[in-house]
User: Fold these one by one.
Assistant:
Number 1:
Amino acid sequence: MRLIVLILLTTLGASCQTSHVPDTNTETTDTEKMGNQIRGTGKIVWNNFEGGFFGIVDQAGTRYYPLNPLDEELQVDGIAVSYVLSLKPGVMTTVMWGMPVSVISIEKINR
C-alpha cells in the first residue's frame, strides 16, 4: 500500500512541474499607448458577422472596434492604416469583437 501511495505522489509531483520556456518573441510593433489613446499602424479588416463591420487589427494582432464609422475610402479589407484611437473599455457592443475605440485620426498608408 505504501508503495502505491509513493508511486502516486511521485507521479503527481512530477506532473506539477513546469518547465521554463524562454521568451523568443522579438516582434516589435509601432503601437504606442498614451493614457487612454493608442497611436500605431495596422490594417482594416472586414468581419462578416453581426451584419458585417470593419475593424482595425494592429501588427501584434490586437483588434480594435471603431465606434464611429470609418470614411468610405477606408472601408476596404486589408488596407494599411496609421491611426490614433481613444480606448473605450467600459463600452459594451453587440459585436463582441475587439476593444471599443473612438477614431481620433486615421489615414491610409502605403506598405
Number 2:
Amino acid sequence: MCGKAAELMVALVLAMPHVSFAERDIINGQEFDTLCGFFRLAQRIRTLLDEMKGTSKVDVVIQKEKISDILFGTTAGDASKMVWKPLREMDCGKDSGNPTFEAGSTLVRDIICLCERRDLQQPSKKLCYEENTKHLDSSRWGDSAAHGKTWDDLKAKCEEVHEKGIPTQAEFQKRKDKLKAGIKERTDPTRREHLYTYGGGKEYGLQTCSGTPTQYDGVCVLYPRGSEQDNASGIKWLVELERLVKEVEKITKDEGTSKHTKPSSDGEPSMDAKPNSNLKPSTEGGSPTERSDEPRENRNPDAQTTTTTETQTGLTTARPPEEQKSSAKIILQCIWVFLFWLFV
C-alpha cells in the first residue's frame, strides 16, 4: 500500500497545474491574469442569462447587450469588428504632449494592449504568457482582423481556467482589489500626473504605451485617475461590469436561482459538482437513493444480484462515503510515512 502511495505522490507532483503567469518572469503576466478573471466573470454572467432566457420574468436581453458593450464596445460584437486607431498609443494611452489618450473603454481592448507584441521594438522577456511569440507589424495596428486573431489566442488562454457559479459582488470586489494593487503612479516631478499606468514591466508609472520598451514607454495601458480614494474608478468597463454584477445578483435572488447554485461567501467562484451518473432513480419510492430507515431484510432481495451483474458488465458503482474516507485516510498516512523515511 505504501509503495503505491509513493507512486501516487510522484504522479500528483507531475500532474500539478502549470505555474501561474504571475509567478514567471513574464511582462504583464499578473495583469493578464487579473483581466482574464474579469473576462471569465463576464462570460459566466452571459451563460447565466442564457439559462434564464425564456424562464425569467425579467427581460435579460438588455443585460446581455451590456456584456457585449463591456467586452467589445457598443458598435462591435467581437474583436474582429472593433474599430482601432492608427497608432497603438491612441488606443492604449499617452500622457505626454498634446493631445493625450487614455485606455479603459473596453476590456478586450485593454487585454490586447497588454499582450500584443510589435514587430521590432518588443520586450526581450515573455509577454503575458509563455507561448506568446506572435508579432504584429506596427503599421497594422489599425487592422481589426489582425487584432481579432490575436484575441482568439488570448481568449483561449484565458479560458484554460474553468470557473462556475453565480457571480457575486464579493467576488467582483476581490478581483477589483487585485487590479487596484497593480495600478502605478508616475514619479515625474516636472508635471502633475493625469493618468495611472497598468502593466509595462516597471515599478513606476509610464508616460506612453506605444509598445516601445524604454524608460518612459512600454507595453501597457493608461487609465484615467478617477477619484483619489479609488484608483480604478476611472476605468469605464470596470464601472459598468460592477453595476452589471449587482443587477444580475439581484435578479438571481428575486428569481430564486440561488436555491440551485449557491454563491460563494468567500469571494471565490463556486465550482459545480457533477452528479453521479451511477446512481439510478428508484422505481418504487421516487427517490434516487435507497431509504435508510427501511429494515435491511425488507429491501430489494435482488440488490446483490444487480450489483454483481453490473460489475460483470464493467459498470462501476459508487463506494459508501465511509469506505472512501477510510481509503483516503490510509493513503494519507502512507504518504506521511513515505515522506518521513525520505527525509530522515
